[in-house]
Each structure stands twice: as C-alpha cells, then as structure tokens.
Amino acid sequence: MSFLNTWFASKEIDEKPSRPILGKILETLREGVLVVRQDTRILASNAAAYNAFARRNGALEEKRLSEVIRDFSLHEAFRRALQSGETSDIELEIPGIEKRKYDVHIAPIQLDNINGAIGFFHDITQIEHLEKVRQEFLSNISHELRTPLTSIMAFVETLEDGAIEDKENNQRFLSVIRKNAQRMHHLIDDILELSTIETGKINLELKQTNLAAHVEEVFTNLSTKANDRRIKLINEVPDDVRVFADVVRLEQMLTNLIDNAIKFNRAKGSVTVSCTENGTKDIISVADTGEGISGEHQTRIFERFYRTDRARSREIGGTGLGLAIVKHLARLHGGEVSVASTLTKGTIFSIELPKTL
Questions:
Q1: Tell me: the pLDDT tens digits for 34-71?
Q2: Among residues 332, 323, 330, 345, which one has the least CA distance to residue 283?
Q3: Are 88 and 81 in contact (CB under 8 A)?
Q4: Which of 105, 123, 141 is the last residue of a domain?
C-alpha cells in the first residue's frame, strides 16, 4: 500500500477530506501528478502536470486521459492499476517542438471510497541530454586520444624492432612520436581549460585595454604558421580602440579564432581583424578567405570536438575545443560569439563584448 493510501486509511473521517488534502500535497511536488478514476477521467492534477500537459486544453480535471496524453503504454499502465491494482514504471516520450521524456510511476489509490490510479511524471529530458553529451564526450575523447597513441605505439615498436639503429630514419620516427605526444598534451590541456571555464571558477580581471596591440601580439605569435601557408595577416583595428576585457582571456580568444582562420584558409589568402561598435557593445571580427562553412555546420560549430571536416582537421592539427573555449570565455565576459559564412567566399567570427559591466 502506498504512503498516501496508508495515510488516508488512518483518517476516520467521513466528510471527504481526501481531495483538498491531496491537492495541497500534490502542489508541493516538483513532479507532474495525475490522479485518474475508473472511467479514465482525470480526477486531480498539480501545477507541474498542468504546465507539462495542458497546452491549450485548459484545465485537466474531468478530461479523459487519452485527450491529454496519447500513449498506449501509459494508458495500459493506468488500466492495470485501475482494474488489477498493479503498480507500473514506464518511460514516456512526449513529441513536439521540445521533445520531453519522463519516468512515470503509476500505482492504485483510493480516495473517498473512489478507486483510482495516480501517476508521477518525473521529467528526465535534461538528464537524458546530459547523458548523451557525456557519452559523446567520452566517445570523442577516446577517439582523439587513440589516434596519436596508436601512432606513438607503432613507431615505438618499430624502433624496438631495430629501427633505432637506422640513422637515416630513427630521428624522423622520434619526431613523429614527439609530434603526437604534443598533440595529446595539447588536447588534455584544452580539456582541463574548458572544464575550468565551464564551471565558472576563473576570475576575470576586466579593464579597458588596447585591442590593436593585442591583435599585433597574436599576429606575431602566429606569423610563422601564416608565412608557411602564405596567409596575409591584416590588422584593421584603429590604434585608439580600447575594449573592456580580461587581457589574458582576450588574447586566448583572439589566438583561437586567428589560428583557425589561418589553418582553414586557402593558400595566399588573408585574415583580417576589425572592430566596430553596436550601442553598448564592441564587436571584434576575425574574417578569413577560406572555403566557408555550410549552414548545417554553423549551428554546431561551437560544440566540443565538432568538426566540419574531420580528416582535414586531423591533418592540420588542433583539438576541436578552441571554438568551445571562445564561446564560454565570451559568455563569462557577458558577451557572445557568432559566425557568419558564405561558401567559397570565407567566414567571419565575431565576439561581442559589453563596453562595461
């Protein structure tokens, strides 16, 4: 017997106290609750159930369960509770613009000499989403670590099998091992960095700072990579422009965006950094002359490990976390990052930063 049944059975009162008491109890619950009587009409509900299932139907009371939720397994579970006194646990998925998923517990209940059934709807949509994100993260991180690790193991075995004495190739093999070890090191660093940023446990030292000088600093650090691909770096930020930001994190965002613009650009292309104002915000833009990003990819480009071209991304390096880091750093500044792109013509990433807090 359920707690409610036991509690109500202990009350030797004849004037139907159950419904008002039940109503008060139900309204304290975060889960949606529906109480159904023998004819499958809804006898009682709470605010959480109304918000989840009422839609434009108005009050839930006196409606048939099938009018409110169309799901065969749910109706069967309530039927078993009403006719056989069985308790059931099922999963329920409600389709719509925002698909919702519930763990539902259904049990028989007696109120005021009325045999009914009560269903508790625990919304697990967010839990399911987080589990999917966790699984995707583990899958991605395993893959990203396995690729360089496989290469390292292969070349170590080659060296152990005698190639260490091969003066023509042993240094090349060691160079490949070092390159892949560095790739794993950078990946782990970025994972730890992103984890720290996502928790919000970093302190920003916000102040007015010269943007053009920071762009030039990043250009200098990335000049060798740009020269190798004959990419022209253009700083269009006026010398007197100042933005309100944490200096270290600003350079980190610029580095990630400019580095990407170099890597995914076409040979002899260009990367241009500029800054405009939009009311109370400064907009820093990094434009390249690459192949562009299709619309289907633009909506996911800031996700962890998401790549529009995995094969090319691995070939030119990178951890797949740079844009996710930029997104979270921009939000910590009270701003946002966005992308606009035209296929064959290039891509523009823009960081919006408030002028003050």
A1: 999 999 999 888 888 988 887 666 788 889 999 889 89
A2: 330
A3: yes
A4: 123
Q: For the chain, what is the domain count?
A: 3
Tens digit of each residue's pLDDT (9 = 90 or more) over 288-339: 999 898 888 888 888 877 766 654 445 555 567 889 999 999 999 999 999 9
Pair 152, 237 in one domain: no
Q: Which residues contact residue 230 at a Cβ distance below 8 angstroms, ignoring those fewer than 6 apart?
A: 267, 268
- 100-111 and 114-123 strand pairing: antiparallel
Residues 213, 330: one domain? Answer: yes
Q: Are residues 151 and 76 in the same domain?
A: no
User: What number of helices (H) and strands (E) belong to the chain?
Assistant: 13, 12
Find the helix or strand (DSSP H, E) in which 298 lies: helix 295-298
Whether residues 72 and 134 share a domain: the answer is: no
Indicate which CATH number applies to the domain containing 265: 3.30.565.10
Give me 18's structure tokens.
Answer: 């159950």
The most distant pair of C-alpha atoms in the chain lies apart, rounded to whole Å, by 98
Rounded to 5°, angle at Cα 266 from 263 and 271: 65
